[in-house]
Amino acid sequence: MKIKHYTPDQSGLAYSVGVTLDRFIKIKQEDFPFASGELSQLLRDIALASKIVNRETNRAGLANIGGAFGQTNVQGEEQQKLDVIANIRFMRALSKGGEVSAIVSEEDDEVIDLQNKSGKYVVAIDPLDGSSNIDVNISIGTIFSIYRRVTPIGSPIQIEDVMQPGCNQVASGYVLYGSSTMMVYTTGHGVNGFTYEPSLGEFFLSHPDMKAPRDGKIYSINEGTFNHFDKGLKSYIEECKNREYSARYIGSLVADFHRNLLKGGIYIYPATSKAPNGKLRLLYEANALAFIAEQAGAKATDGKQRILEIEPTSLHQRTPLYIGSSKMVDEVERFQKVKVHSVI
């Protein structure tokens, strides 16, 4: 019997489709702080739910699931039908996976106790960020943050398992539903992006070891509230205009952040006279993106301190957010400090 050794195809007839998310997670398992398989499965559960949400968003116009649901969430924001659908999809995936003991969601007033005392992880999630953009066919996203619970496994879930600073995250990520669907995540060992191939039903590694440019020429901020900014931020925005930087603001946090991560830029959602605590939520928006930003070489602050060092005091706590290329974040902080001192 003759044995032929395998050699990669060199005919050029069958190109490589790349590394799947599932295979990548298995390869990188040893990078996880607690490499026993649960975190790997948890990431797969999130990926599965995102595939379902991707399908739902793509058929929203045909299935009459666009538009408002007719209720408001705990934030006082009008829920869209797809907000509710996405929340259900992720809740089901995370509860059936068995690795999660509790969930904090933008769409729920209280912590969701899954009654899974053996679950080692807590997930904070914004199931569908920017969902009001669905009806006008603009990119939206999912943001997730994963913590290892701090109370003993087997005991009931406690509030300290949920109220942890961002520096305790073991993983975080986002899914961008746009011209293509991407999942980007970190476990504290760099940032990797995966693009969904719908005909195969798989995420493939498309953006390995993502690094944010140190500087950029894009600023993303809702200038409609300019009159409510502090003097330092107003001066910084004027300086961006003087330098002829590009103003890019989609209104979907994930989409704005993703663009700046790739091209270099800064996203700002500041404290204002109308919203002195900012608007974005710390636990399931700011912390998750700040972890990714830092792993990619970028920065994230509330204008005064590092986002990941903020101690949460309430479940749906809001925070200002300055996130993006490190040089731009440093500069806007300097502008604000100078103006504060000049007023004094």
From TrEMBL:
Cell location: Cytoplasm
A Pfam family per the record: FBPase_C
Domain (Fructose-1-6-bisphosphatase class I N-terminal) ranges: 20-208
Catalysed conversion reaction: beta-D-fructose 1,6-bisphosphate + H2O = beta-D-fructose 6-phosphate + phosphate
Pathway given in the UniProt record: Carbohydrate biosynthesis
Highest rank taxon of the organism: Bacteria
Gene Ontology CC terms: cytosol
E.C. numbers: 3.1.3.11
Keywords on record: Carbohydrate metabolism, Cytoplasm, Hydrolase, Magnesium, Metal-binding
SUPFAM superfamilies, per database record: Carbohydrate phosphatase
Domain spans labelled Fructose-1-6-bisphosphatase class 1 C-terminal: 213-336
Positions of substrate binding: D129, G130, S131, S132, N222, Y249, K279
Main localization category: cytoplasm
Cofactor mode of binding and number, as noted: Binds 2 magnesium ions per subunit.
Binding annotation for Mg(2+) 2: D126, D129, E285
UniProt GO BP: fructose 1,6-bisphosphate metabolic process; fructose 6-phosphate metabolic process; fructose metabolic process; gluconeogenesis; sucrose biosynthetic process
Complex and partners: Homotetramer.
Family the entry assigns: Belongs to the FBPase class 1 family.
Family matches, as PANTHER family: FRUCTOSE-1,6-BISPHOSPHATASE-RELATED, SEDOHEPTULOSE-1,7-BISPHOSPHATASE, CHLOROPLASTIC
NCBIfam families the UniProt entry points to: PRK09293.1-1 (NF006778)
Protein name in the entry: Fructose-1,6-bisphosphatase class 1
Species per Swiss-Prot/TrEMBL record: Indibacter alkaliphilus (strain CCUG 57479 / KCTC 22604 / LW1)
Encoding gene (name): fbp
